[in-house]
UniProtKB/TrEMBL annotation:
Domain Rab-GAP TBC, residue spans: 63-251
One of the record's GO molecular function terms: small GTPase binding
Gene that encodes the chain: Tbc1d10a
Annotated Gene Ontology cellular component terms: plasma membrane
Protein name: TBC1 domain family member 10A isoform X3
Organism: Octodon degus (Degu)
Zinc-finger keyword on record: no
Pfam families per the UniProt record, alphabetical: RabGAP-TBC
Keywords from the UniProt entry: GTPase activation
Spans annotated as Disordered: 347-459
Amino acid sequence: MEGSEHSPPHSEAAFSIVSGNRLEEVPLEVLRQRESKWLDMLNNWDKWMAKKHKKIRLRCQKGIPPSLRGRAWQYLSGGKVKLQQNPGKFDELDMSPGDPKWLDVIERDLHRQFPFHEMFVSRGGHGQQDLFRVLKAYTLYRPEEGYCQAQAPIAAVLLMHMPAEQAFWCLVQICEKYLPGYYSEKLEAIQLDGEILFSLLQKVSPVAHKHLSRQKIDPLLYMTEWFMCAFARTLPWSSVLRVWDMFFCEGVKIIFRVGLVLLKHALGSPEKLKACQGQYETIEQLRSLSPKIMQEAFLVQEVVELPITERQIEREHLIQLRRWQETRGELQCRSPPRLHGAKAILDAEPTPRGALQPSPSIRLPPDIPLPSPKAKPKPPKQAQKEQKRTKPSGHLDKPPIPNQTTAMTAGGDACAPQDVTLKDPASQDLVPQDSAPQDLTLHHSQESLTSQESEDTYL
């Protein structure tokens, strides 16, 4: 079975089959429309997150267009912000030698990650090299955590969609914001979430809950790989991508919902339980899930409709934490509180930051003019009339006011700065009229280059 414990997760053939099905399900015109909508969102990200977050969530549920998935994951996770806040940090970590204790373990795990994918098929190939760089950098970034094997498939999926530096910061966000404590030495956070999952199962599927209770099957036996790898080693590839789209937007509740849906449809009826008479048979049933319940359209619909909220998860978290403290004492892992999705991560930003702006894919020296496909902005007619009606002293009847519409047109790009009034950087006063056209031209040459990020074309 694809992605099972004993078989390679995803072959090259699997990608072509998925692509073929995808093209049949989503017409090309619809895909192009979705790309256009996502480009508009990404170029005005902060405004959309502030005012239209529900729309972003709905579009993530429909599926992020493949050409923009990597960039969208960076924006949703806050990895883009972390990269901007820490310029050069990844390069610094990349150049550091690292702890030999972790380097040996990472090296041994490289060939196990998606071994039939073209990025990772070659030992020592560029995919394995980047995977090593990202995982090593994390052990240096968080030496108290080090390396956990479940981080490798997470980093590998990220590297399929973005360069190493961006993948590193997305991995940081997953480990610190989405799934804090999952990769610590004692795995206490994953044990706690196993109890939360099992308690929520009683509400979703009493039949499955009763069966697992009777068989005395610990949640860790079936949910550890699901949750720690975010289903990257469990589901078909198209389903993995759709789950991750929603996970980056809505947080860990998506992981809980997927787990509950799989348990419900694998063990949630007397007919299904006929083949699960003992512990071994039940575990095997959960390790060899039916392709039907993992199929992309079915799974996504079930996950979206399942009424499990962040509030329910957090309430259950407090209950299970109290039980843990009563039976086992205090948690040894002091991980930060978990944030439920992109909106919570953005709201938790400690200090004001600059708006996210696409960076140019081509950089030219500022003194080189860039030809514009549009006509040069002309002075407004009203300003021309004002110039004609000058007094003998040479002063205008009214002082000239820089036209904001003209400045926005010159900006060209959708992500032009909001404050378009031309000012002198030193004095913060309006610049003289005769110097305005020159500044507008420079503004155009810089902004017209911001149409696409360098990583947008990374497929």
